[in-house]
Amino acid sequence: MINNILFCLKHQTQLGWLIDPQERLILVFKPKQELEVFEGEQILPILDSLKGYQLSVN
C-alpha cells in the first residue's frame, strides 16, 4: 500500500493518507516531505480545494 502511495506522489498526487484503524492513527504523505503521523484530535492536512473542512483521526 505504501508503495502505491509513493508511486502516486511521484505522478502529481498532492496528498496521501494511510489509515491504520487498529493503531488509531493516520500516516500522511506529501510530495518531497517527510512522513507525518497524526493521532487523536490532531487536525489532518487536506487539499487546498477542501479548505474550510477539518478532519481529525477521531
Shape: globular
Largest β sheet strand count, sense and barrel closure: 3 strands, antiparallel
Query: Poorly predicted ranges (pLDDT <50, ≥5 residues)?
Result: none
Radius of gyration: 12 Å
Secondary-structure element string: HEEE
What would you call the structural class?
alpha+beta
Q: What is the count of distinct domains?
A: 1
Spatial separation of the terminal alpha carbons:
22 Å
- Proportion of residues in helical segments: 10-25%
Tell me what you see in this structure:
It is a single chain. With 58 residues, the chain is α+β, with helices and mostly antiparallel strands. It has one domain (2-50). The protein has one helix at residues 2-10; strands at 16-20, 25-29, 36-39. It has a three-stranded antiparallel beta sheet, covered by helices on one side. A hairpin with a 6-residue loop joins β2 (25-29) and β3. The model has no long low-confidence stretch (mean pLDDT 95). Residues 6-57 form the Putative restriction endonuclease domain. This is Putative restriction endonuclease domain-containing protein. It comes from Planktothrix tepida PCC 9214.
Short structural summary:
The chain is of the alpha+beta class and 58 residues long.
Explain the layout of strands and helices.
Layout: H1 2-10, E1 16-20, E2 25-29, E3 36-39
Antiparallel strand pairs: 1-2, 2-3
